[in-house]
Design a protein that fits this description.
With 856 residues, the chain is mainly beta. Helices cover 10% and strands 36% of the residues.
Length: 856
């Protein structure tokens, strides 16, 4: 509700600005005689929206004078609004400065039921040689009502989708922001909010990335194990699919680092349809995406960009940093938009509007600055009254190479530049916008480094008005580490930091003891640790994927294959889950070598890979979705989506998971799919008292089921199955594994509208593994029926329904029984006697005839 109210308030402000701009434009069109007179009358006004308003709710007070002023930076000063409450008391709002249109706005919250009076007062003032006389507006009555008695109408919310949906999302469906997140870069802690995390392994579609799967044939018995081997996967050092992002429901990716030309593919994440394929610059990959909300005097909206960068740090983030060149491309077409040259090296942080900043810190020279991309590319003197990137090429020169000082020509690209204490050790490890910069002499130490170091943590204030103040410069007691020859490092630096901005906590680890310590970013002091040691195997592995912080927990997993959650404020172990390997295919341990893919929607997703897997690949690598609070398993798929260490791991956007699978080198999209329900009734016309047979099917009609291979295997459609069956069912459908024996179907509800117009449910049933259902029912009244079959949906599927009809006629008429007359005495006695006499005579005649025939 709070976010919705903030959005509502912003819209109110924008409306006020818009209305004022319209008035200003009309004023500019009328020739002014201001220069012809030394004084000029003014006309003040005031309005409130909404009016009436509920007590305790905000109303936007719009006020000013009808005279615009000068340029965009100018405004009238010292305006006030006097508010008279229902009890007669006065409150003065302001003083305010208007914008160049001559007006401005403020929020006001009346708390008393009744009528308020608002009036604007404009004081006399001079501008451009003319005296503008004082004026006051007509009083405005603001009606404040009791919401329990009289409701102020609000635009109805658009509910979250209950059926299959795609992009674009209508801008009026504001509530849908909660399920439509993008993956513009690997986020800090791999925490990706604004998604409805999938709760089954249901596949929406798949497409080949490159040649993959089993080699087969003559390579069926090769290698040291003399067994079947697969195609190369890119691990190690040649990772595939490494540059992939999701922006506004589109997936962008390339195949691999050594495939030329390096083609960037744009695919609809919901349908799998390829939208375009292009090569950027000299075979460059996408570095990150951006959604930037732009607000100027005349124009507001969000701009989307794909960014390709060159320059910067060396391999593995090592080597001296150099300025970068950034190239923006249109995500919809792949066309070039703009270039920013000489972007300074520094620690990247992001604003609420998607704008990009960098903390640039020179510890030896003793200065720090905040580089502001928006300040560089959106400037009034560049003519950007109506859009971002009003120019095509920008120079963001940062520092003089000889002196290390900021270049004067780049001052406009910096929000501030301040001095800091000289000689702070180490380097910046993290930054929080408008809050603080954290530095240390322990960066992410490579795993092969063994030299123990003193651990120093320092912090620089970056809050408004306090920029550059030293918050702390603390040396941790590292005697135990040095004596034990331990390697101590911050976990997950390099832009994917396990630092919690809310709790202001960072985590360091002892490689040798596989234990953790919590460091306060408020004081620079250790607040807990060491935690209980994990197994020795957790000293290895990719530190960028195995340690993340979310929901006030530190989540750790690695070569040992045990996912653990520690309370980030205390270091206490909250829960653990062993990602076991029942068939001991993994060579590392009895569990799977695992990493954290991402965290969202109260869930944590874990996949398995390794630095350089042997062939044949270990079978059954798991992909697991766990409850992030208690570690309970929501779903697990074994052998469905094996990850990669050197390429791109699974990501999420628009509540759909996109991942590459190294078993077959295909890209998969995982999420809720559409279904189709079909129903028929037999016979179509029956008689009262007879039954009808209702039957039908429920099938999965996700885009992937339209693939030619699946259409041949499932000519009657791919059956929809239960959530519990999804993991094994997807192996069967998309990977041609054996048909699982324990598949169960989905529930179906049957309802009718009878000839009396009554709607009622007549029963329910469950589909078979073939997606088929049947139901026998005896209609209870005569007439026409409409019958509905409903599948309510599940975590794997969106709902669907179908409808048909039948008729019930009256039963056939039965023939009327004839009346029976009681027999007479003649009927009972005389007639039978006469009949007997005739029979006797006939017999006698026959005997006489026989005697005569025998006589000689």
């Amino acid at each position: 509700m709070e976010k919705r109210e903030k959005m509502k308030n912003l819209c109110k402000r924008n409306l006020a600005i818009f209305l004022t701009l319209l008035f200003a434009i009309s004023t500019f069109l009328v020739p002014s005689n201001a220069n012809a007179a030394s004084t000029k009358a003014t006309y003040a006004f005031v309005d409130a929206m909404p009016n009436p308003v509920n007590a305790g709710a905000q109303t936007l007070v719009h006020f000013g004078i009808t005279e615009p002023i000068g340029t965009a930076q100018d405004g009238w000063k010292d305006l006030t609004v006097v508010v008279t409450a229902p009890d007669g008391t006065n409150e003065t709002l302001g003083p305010f400065k208007t914008d160049s249109t001559g007006a401005t706005a403020t929020n006001y919250v009346p708390d008393t039921i009744g009528n308020y009076t608002l009036q604007t007062f404009f004081p006399q003032q001079d501008w451009s040689g003319v005296t503008y006389k004082a004026s006051s507006s007509d009083p405005l009555t603001l009606k404040v009502v009791d919401s329990a008695v009289e409701t102020v109408a609000q635009y109805p919310a658009v509910p979250l989708p209950t059926e299959y949906w795609t992009r674009p999302i209508d801008a009026q469906a504001r509530e849908w922001y909660t399920i439509s997140g993008s993956w513009l870069r690997t986020p800090d802690n791999k925490y990706a909010p604004y998604n409805d995390g999938p709760e089954t392994a249901h596949i929406l579609w798949t497409t080949p990335l490159t040649t993959g799967g089993l080699a087969g044939g003559e390579l069926g018995l090769v290698g040291s194990a003399a067994t079947s081997v697969g195609m190369e996967t890119g691990d190690a050092y040649e990772g595939k699919w490494s540059n992939r992002i999701i922006l506004n429901g589109k997936l962008y990716y390339n195949v691999g680092p050594y495939v030329m030309p390096n083609t960037i593919y744009c695919v609809d994440l919901h349908t799998g349809e390829e939208l375009w394929a292009k090569t950027f610059l000299d075979n460059r990959s996408i570095s990150f995406g951006q959604l930037m909300y732009f607000q100027s005097y005349n124009y507001q909206g969000t701009f989307a960009y794909l960014w390709v960068t060159t320059g910067g740090a060396g391999m593995f983030g090592m080597g001296p940093p150099s300025p970068e060149n950034w190239y923006a491309f249109d995500p919809n077409t792949g066309d070039w938009v703009a270039t920013i040259n000489n972007v300074p090296a520094g620690t990247t942080v992001y604003g609420r509007n998607g704008d990009i900043y960098r903390y640039v810190v020179n510890q030896q020279q003793g200065w720090a600055a905040l580089w502001n991309m928006t300040a560089l590319v959106v400037t009034p003197d560049a003519g950007s009254w109506g859009s971002a990137f009003s120019l095509k090429t920008f120079n963001a020169s940062a520092t003089n190479a000889a002196t290390g000082q900021l270049m004067p020509t780049a001052q406009r690209a910096y929000t501030w530049n301040v001095t800091i204490p000289k000689g702070l050790p180490g380097s910046v490890i993290s930054g929080f916008l408008d809050d603080r910069i954290i530095g240390s002499n322990i960066a992410s130490i490579p795993l092969w480094a063994t030299t123990p170091q003193q651990c120093v943590v320092w912090g620089i204030n970056t809050k408004k008005g306090q920029e550059g103040q030293l918050l702390f410069n603390n040396t941790l007691d590292s005697s135990t580490w040095i004596a034990g020859n331990q390697t101590i490092y911050w976990v997950n630096t390099g832009g994917q930091s396990a630092f919690d901005a809310g709790d202001k906590i960072g985590v360091i680890q002892s490689k040798e003891l596989t234990s953790f310590y919590g460091i306060s970013f408020e004081t620079g002091k250790m607040i807990w640790g060491p935690s209980k040691s994990e197994t020795y195997l957790d000293a290895y592995g990719d530190q960028l994927t195995t340690r993340q912080i979310a929901y006030h927990n530190l989540y750790t997993v690695g070569v040992a294959g045990v996912l653990r959650a520690y309370n980030v404020n205390t270091g206490e172990l909250v829960w653990s889950y062993a990602i076991d390997d029942p068939y001991t295919e993994s060579l590392a341990s009895n569990n799977w070598w695992s990493g954290i893919m991402f965290i969202t929607d109260g869930k944590i997703y874990v996949g398995s890979s390794e630095h350089s897997a042997n062939q044949p690949l270990p079978r059954g690598a798991p992909f697991v979705c766990l409850n992030a609070t208690d570690g309970s398993v929501i779903w697990r798929a074994n052998g469905l989506f094996r990850q990669t260490d050197w390429g791109g791991m699974a990501i999420i956007g628009d509540s759909i998971i996109a991942t590459m699978d190294t078993y077959d080198q295909r890209i998969y999209a995982i999420g809720k799919g559409p279904t189709e329900t079909a129903i028929s009734a037999n016979p179509k016309v029956t008689t009262y008292g007879s039954s009808i047979q209702i039957e039908g099917t429920i099938t999965d009609i996700s885009p992937g089921t339209e693939d030619a291979a699946l259409a041949l295997r499932f000519p009657n459609g791919v059956p929809a199955v239960s959530d519990e069956s999804q993991s094994d069912w997807m192996l069967y459908v998309y990977k041609q594994f054996a048909t699982p024996s324990n598949v169960t179907g989905v529930p179906v509800t049957l309802s009718v509208v009878d000839s009396n117009g009554n709607y009622r449910t007549i029963g329910s049933t469950t589909t078979t593994a073939d997606g088929f259902f049947s139901f026998n029912w005896k209609p209870d009244i005569e007439g026409q029926y409409t019958i509905y079959a409903f599948f309510a949906g599940s975590e794997a599927y969106w709902p669907s329904h179908d409808v048909t009809s039948f008729a019930v006629e009256p039963a056939a008429a039965t023939a009327s029984p004839q009346s029976t007359v009681a027999p007479s005495m003649a009927d009972l006695y005389f007639l039978p006697a006469i009949a007997g006499l005739f029979v006797a005579i006939i017999i006698c005649i026959a005997m006489v005839a026989l005697v005569l025939r025998k006589k000689p």
